[in-house]
Amino acid sequence: MRVLVTGATGFVGRALVPMLTQAGHDVTITVRYGPSADHLKNVRLKNIGEIGPETNWQEALSNIDAVLHLAGRAHVMAESDADPLAAYRRINRDGTKRLAEAAADAGVKRLVFLSSIKVNGERTTNHPYSEASTPQPEDAYGQSKWEGEQALHEINGLETVV
């Protein structure tokens, strides 16, 4: 399978990409700038810049069967942005929606979106979460990931998995 992985140099991506290549998948990864993925072998690298609503995905999505969307704006410990929610939304909601739209236009069959447990809030319950659980995000990160999940419901012509 021809797979595009966003966030390939992150916590999950750096473990997942070698597994995909070892399993025989044809892997393309995206990075923001330059060759920051030198440690990942047997992959094609596409520089796309920052992920957002204006990202041009056309070249990266050419001849791709599935997208594993791991990239996003994660927890920022010393937040300096004047409007943190807007900063998170730009990448985690709007960037995710743009990628899904571009993937559908490119004929990609499936997009897997790595969301976050923070969509369900900050408290652990005595029951496992499911699709029927009521989302209760309590911070800008959780809210933007929840909105990213919802944005995927607006996309036609693409199977999405959260």
What is the gist of this entry?
This protein has 162 residues and is an alpha/beta fold. 30% of the residues lie in helices and 17% in strands.
Describe what you observe in this structure.
With 162 residues, this protein is of the alpha/beta class. It has a single domain, classed as NAD(P)-binding Rossmann-like Domain (Rossmann fold). The chain is built from four helices and six strands; from the N terminus they run βαββαβαβαβ. It has a six-stranded parallel β-sheet with strand order 3-2-1-4-5-6, with helices on both faces. Helix 3 links the parallel strand 4 (66-69) and strand 5. The longest helix has 22 residues, at 84-105. The protein is globular and about 40 Å long. The mean pLDDT is 92.
Oligomer: single chain
DSSP helical segment count: 4
Percent helix among the residues? Answer: 25-40%
Order of helices and strands: EHEEHEHEHE
**The top level CATH class name:** Alpha Beta
CATH T-level topology: Rossmann fold
What's the count of strands?
A: 6
CATH architecture, by name, is: 3-Layer(aba) Sandwich
Structural class: alpha/beta
Low-confidence stretches: none
In CATH, what is the homologous superfamily?
NAD(P)-binding Rossmann-like Domain
Radius of gyration: 16 Å
The portion of residues forming beta strands comes to 15-25%
Total individual domains:
1
Major β-sheet strand ordering: 3-2-1-4-5-6
- Mean pLDDT score: 92
